[in-house]
Write a structure and sequence with these properties.
By secondary structure, the protein is of the alpha/beta class. It folds into three domains: about 260 residues, 3-Layer(aba) Sandwich (Rossmann fold); about 220 residues, 3-Layer(aba) Sandwich (Dimethylsulfoxide Reductase, domain 2), CATH 3.40.228; about 100 residues, Barwin-like endoglucanases. It is built from 30 helices and 29 strands. Strand 26 and strand 27 form a beta hairpin. Helix 14 runs antiparallel to helix 17.
């Protein structure tokens, strides 16, 4: 893919730069900001019972938080130690003792009164558990009993009636690979993973635009690029170590641009705890913030390109890199004609930005010799997510920002394990190192694995949940669901529907390290809970792949072990041998080392993983830059410029577009009810002051946000959010999001919709009349009209 190798970490400037300081008051005293020192002390206290082990995890293991790829306290971007409170918060998952037996075997109604946060704090699952229909408590089971129950059920099923799902909770490449292999050995293609609901459009769009499914560049490329654009990404909150890279970029003169409906405080300024200057005085990050309408990004990008083409008419070569476009792309004339048809009124109304503001960013990018585009779920979690990302690729291709230093396309991952999930074959469209619909890939894997792969198309996880409610006679009626981690009650739209789906399955298997609210739900026959090891406990260690395609080895770390917990991949192997004992010899995967050796054969880009054995071992697949020198791994070596249609964004007068945001949390695991950056409560609804004024709302006033799908009770919080748009926390706001609305190419659920906002007293005063139903009908009629 690329011949240039990553050159390793660089040093930060030693001399401070007061121009970047937020305040001369030390540690931001009196300001709304995270209290890193206090937070660190609190976390140390929480881990006091296993503090030496906690220190070994931090100094020897690969971070199981976000996908920046910190091994021990160091990475491949900047010299010096890195630490963040997100990693520290996740740390307790690895050092907790087992759940007390009297609590673990309490009445299910008593456990069900706890939140997922409270359940998490109970401790680790120590041994297998079974709860059959009608039983009010989990009872202890042996591994043989638990796995035989699951295997017996699988024996009697059509493979289309069972499904596997893997979250990104510290799961290693080894576990993803074995799960993908076992699922196919058992005859099912119903296997999916956490990237389905975060970055699946990124992979799909990048594949069709430039032929790759991962970041084309490195974090080092941020440092010294002319422009660094964060599009729908709040990296300072979700990947806090990245603020250190932003600081380094600012010191090199990089302009940082943020595009988001909400003016996120953490992206404007940040006190970086591992840089003394920044920890004391803070660092100004964003140079400019473009507040786009929810869903208005495609219009914004069409507007940028329209400005570029207008610049070209006046002065050829002033905006488009024609040499790059001619040598390395297809579709230029079609794209230019498509953009020329766009009218400015529609583009400004859809984007929410004036022509002048759009022109400002277009001019900045036209002048830039280099740029890196970084994005996250603000672009992907739409029913047009793939089109959003292909638009970003269009911008990069037109300017030649691809395949060279300080340039590239980066979908920044929020989980340390998720980049490798599809690359290991753990989704319904993928095989290790290839695609399931590729005849060549299927033949290659069948020869390696020694058995025929199922030929039918597997389902994405959202459809899998819907299949639980199919009629009994349907061949895809989901009867057994095997999940490694995950809590769909708190990650999928329409929690009430999800609850119904989960309780409609015959058997649910929860392979996990902790309990959550979904674990406690009934099933028609049985719920089986299997205790898993963390990545730091697994014999032979494990690997994970970072956002920048660094494959890191995380060793087994000496310390306490939890009861009967087993390595995730080992549980899969044991299950497969019970279901198909005649195929045991074909399965292999007897050790972590053997799995890595097989991965190197199955996924050619991962050749080198078999040599990772010691703490600190790492390699980067694909070289420093994918598509190096503009050459894409497509059939003709060229990238595709794609005309992207504006999505339909009908928002009736008096209604709001709503999207979800993250507070102090890791995925759906909430660590504080208050966001340290803006002091928002989990049920605060971020609304612009003029919108609040129009509704006669005061700060903190009780409100109800509702539509035809559900409602959310909260309080108005005045914030710098784009007028006509509101933001609610995820997962608390998921009750407003419709189920079954998927992006057509990648299958990600839609996490944005239109809502009504009213004072709670108005809503409840009419609750016994037809008022609310009429308002919802009005919304639906106008949305369809």
């Amino acid at each position: 893919m690329g011949k240039t190798k990553h050159t390793g970490p660089i040093k930060l400037p030693a001399k401070p730069d007061p121009k970047l300081w937020v305040s001369k008051i030390p540690f931001g005293l009196g300001k709304v900001k995270p209290k890193h020192i206090r937070e660190t002390a609190k976390i140390a206290w929480q881990n006091r019972d296993n503090l030496p082990y906690a220190v070994r995890i931090l100094t020897q293991g690969v971070c199981d938080g976000c996908a920046l790829g910190v091994s021990g306290l160091y990475d491949q971007t900047l010299a010096g130690p890195h630490i963040c409170t997100t990693r520290l918060n996740v740390l307790r998952l690895n050092t907790m003792p087992a759940i007390r037996e009297d609590v673990l075997h309490a009445d299910i109604d008593e456990l069900s009164r706890m939140s997922s946060t409270e359940l998490r704090q109970l401790g680790r699952i120590p041994y297998p558990l079974i709860r059959r229909k009608g039983e009010r408590k989990f009872r202890r089971a042996t591994w043989d009993e638990a796995l035989d129950l699951v295997a017996t059920k699988m024996h009697g099923l059509n493979p289309k009636q069972m499904a596997f799902y893997l979250t990104a909770r510290g799961i290693t490449n080894e576990s993803y690979y074995v799960a993908a292999k076992v699922a196919r050995l058992l005859g099912t293609n119903n296997i999916d993973n956490a990237s389905r609901i975060c970055h699946s459009p990124s992979k799909t769009a990048l594949k069709r635009s430039v032929g790759v499914g991962a970041s084309t560049c490195n974090y080092k490329d941020w440092i010294g690029t002319d422009v660094l654009v964060f599009w729908g990404s709040v990296a300072a909150n979700n990947q806090p170590v990245s603020t250190k890279y932003m600081y380094a970029a600012k010191r090199k003169g990089t302009k940082i641009i943020v595009i988001n409906p909400y003016y996120e405080p953490s992206m404007e300024k940040y006190w970086i705890p591992s840089i003394a200057e920044s920890a004391l005085f803070g660092t100004k990050l964003a140079d400019d913030v473009y507040q786009v309408n929810i869903g208005g990004d495609i219009a914004f990008m069409n507007g940028i390109m329209k400005v570029w083409f207008e610049m070209e008419e006046r002065e050829p070569g002033s905006a488009i890199d024609h040499a790059f476009v001619q040598a390395h792309t297809n579709g230029y004339e079609q794209l230019r004609a498509h953009v020329a048809q766009q009218d400015w009124t529609t583009l400004t109304q859809s984007s929410g930005l004036t022509r002048e503001r759009i022109s400002e960013l277009a001019a900045l990018l036209a002048r830039a010799a280099s740029a890196v585009f970084v994005w996250s779920m603000g672009l992907t979690q739409h029913r047009f997510g793939t089109d959003n990302i292909s638009q970003v690729a269009n911008l990069a291709l037109l300017r030649g920002f691809l395949g060279r230093e300080h340039c590239g396309l980066m979908p920044i991952r929020g989980h340390s394990g998720v980049q490798g999930s599809g690359e290991m074959g753990a989704d319904p469209f993928s095989l290790p190192g290839g695609e399931i619909n590729s005849a060549a890939d299927r033949k290659r894997i069948e020869q390696l694995w020694g058995f025929e792969l199922p030929s039918w198309q597997g389902d994405i996880v959202g459809v899998t949940l819907e299949n639980a409610l199919l009629p009994e006679e349907q061949e895809r009626k989901l009867r057994l669901f095997y999940t490694s981690g995950g809590n769909f009650l708190e990650t999928m739209p329409d929690p009430d529907f999800v609850r119904t789906a989960l309780t409609s399955m015959d058997v649910r298997v929860h392979q996990d390290i902790i309990l959550n609210t979904s674990t406690l739900l009934d099933a028609r026959e049985a719920v089986v809970v299997l205790p898993a090891m963390t990545r730091y406990e697994q014999p032979g260690g494990g690997t994970s792949t970072s956002t920048e395609r660094m494959v890191y080895f995380s060793p087994e770390i000496a310390g306490p072990r939890i009861g009967e917990a087993r390595a995730e991949w080992d549980i899969y192997v044991d299950l497969a041998r019970r279901v198909k004992p005649e195929a045991a010899a074909q399965l292999g995967c007897a050790s972590a080392e053997a799995i890595r050796a097989e991965i190197a054969l199955a996924a050619p880009s991962y050749d080198g993983i078999q040599h990772l054995r010691e703490r600190g071992d790492v390699f980067q697949y694909g070289g420093a830059w994918l598509c190096e020198d503009g050459v894409c791994p497509t059939t003709d070596g060229r990238g595709a410029l794609l005309p992207i249609q504006l999505p339909e964004l009908r928002k009736p007068e008096g209604h709001f577009a709503v999207t979800t945001r993250r507070g102090k949390q890791f995925n759906s695991m909430i660590y504080s009810d208050v966001d340290p950056f803006n002091e928002a409560d989990r049920y605060d609804v971020l609304i612009h002051k003029e919108d609040a004024k129009a509704l006669a709302l005061n700060e903190g006033e009780a409100i109800v946000v509702y539509n035809g799908y559900g409602n959310m009770h909260g309080r108005a919080k005045l914030a710098e959010v784009k007028q006509g748009n509101i933001e609610v926390h995820w997962p608390e706001g998921n009750s407003l999001i419709p189920k079954g609305v998927y992006e057509p190419y990648a299958g990600i659920p839609e996490y944005n919709t239109a809502v009504i906002v009213e004072k709670a007293e108005t809503y409840h005063a009419h609750k016994d009349t037809r008022y609310v139903e009429k308002r919802i009908l009005e919304l639906e009629t106008e949305m369809e009209g």
